[in-house]
Design goal:
Helix Hairpins
């Protein structure tokens, strides 16, 4: 009935009525807002708890990965040291192989020089063989000449004997002739002495020829033995030459194989150096990854702390909303 009045009381009643309606609307909005805030705070708290769990899991995983990465770095560094040792060993083997290849080349050159020396020795042995044969021919000719000289001395010796006999007969006849044959006797005596000297000379020549014949026989035996020795030496030298050729072929094969091994070892050494570079790159990358994981772990831990604070604030907000909602429910709408 106050609302229908036109005086101050009526206007006051209308104003109070409007204020009541506004308060009802405000309380309704507050209740709705608080209810929505409470629901959102609970959802936010739940999400924050889930995010906290996820962040905690991520942090633990990051720490575990960081630990594994640290182990990987240690393993890579150990592998790097081993690979460097292997690379140094391979390089050492490559250097030694190169030295062996150089020695092989020197050996080949020495074998070639030895082969040339063998050829020269063979040529000299052939020359000696030819010279020995020439000496043998000369000795044979000398033997023939000695025989001819011996025959001639025999003839001279025979003539000397006959001359001696003739001189003796002439001396006898000169003696018979007396003084008339005295001069002839002197001549006959001189002829006899000359014949005797001739016989003595022929005997000495015969002895010398006999001695020469013995010397020729000895020389001929020595020459034949020399020919046999030269022939045997020539066979040995030729055999040595053949052996040198076989050694040359074997050394060439070995030298070629050593050169191939040296080239392969050079490639292995180059590959080892590349592996060392790759391992060093992996080491650097692993350290970078470890630093990044450490950064992620730190950021995750910071996020975990923020999420825990957010969860705590959301829980407080939800509790506050429940208190507001409880207080607002005391109003009669």
């Amino acid at each position: 009935e106050f609302l229908d009045r036109k005086d101050e009381i009526g206007r006051l009643a209308n104003s109070f009525n409007n204020m009541t309606d506004n308060i009802k609307d405000l309380i309704t909005q507050i209740v709705d807002t608080v209810s929505h805030t409470s629901s959102s705070s609970q959802e936010l708290a739940s999400i924050a708890e889930e995010s906290t769990g996820a962040a905690d899991y991520i942090a633990n995983s990051a720490n575990e990965v960081a630990g594994n990465t640290e182990k990987q770095i240690q393993a890579v560094e150990s592998a790097s040291a081993v690979v460097e040792e292997i690379s140094a060993s391979v390089q050492n083997v490559a250097d030694n192989t190169r030295n062996v290849a150089e020695l092989g080349d020197k050996t080949v050159n020495a074998v070639y020089k030895g082969q040339e020396a063998i050829k020269e020795a063979v040529e000299q042995m052939n020359n000696i063989n030819h010279a020995t044969k020439d000496i043998a021919d000369t000795i044979n000719k000398l033997t023939i000449s000695s025989k001819q000289i011996n025959e001639i001395t025999d003839v001279i010796d025979g003539i000397s004997e006959q001359t001696n006999l003739l001189a003796l007969n002439a001396a006898i006849e000169a003696t018979r002739a007396g003084d008339a044959g005295r001069g002839f006797a002197v001549v006959a005596e001189e002829v006899r002495k000359l014949a005797e000297q001739t016989q003595d000379s022929t005997r000495q020549i015969a002895l010398l020829i006999k001695e020469n014949e013995n010397n020729i026989i000895t020389a001929n035996s020595a020459v034949k033995e020399g020919e046999e020795n030269v022939s045997g030496g020539l066979e040995i030298v030729n055999s040595v030459g053949t052996t040198f050729e076989e050694i040359r072929d074997l050394v060439n094969m070995v030298s070629e194989q050593i050169n191939n091994i040296s080239a392969a070892m050079e490639q292995v050494a180059s590959g080892s150096r590349e592996i060392v570079g790759a391992v060093e790159s992996i080491d650097i990358s692993s350290k970078n990854v470890a630093e990044q994981i450490q950064s992620v772990s730190t950021a995750t831990e910071e996020q975990l702390a923020s999420m825990e604070e957010l969860a705590s604030a959301s829980q407080s907000l939800a509790e506050l909303a429940q208190e507001i909602q409880a207080a607002a429910s005391k109003f009669k709408v």
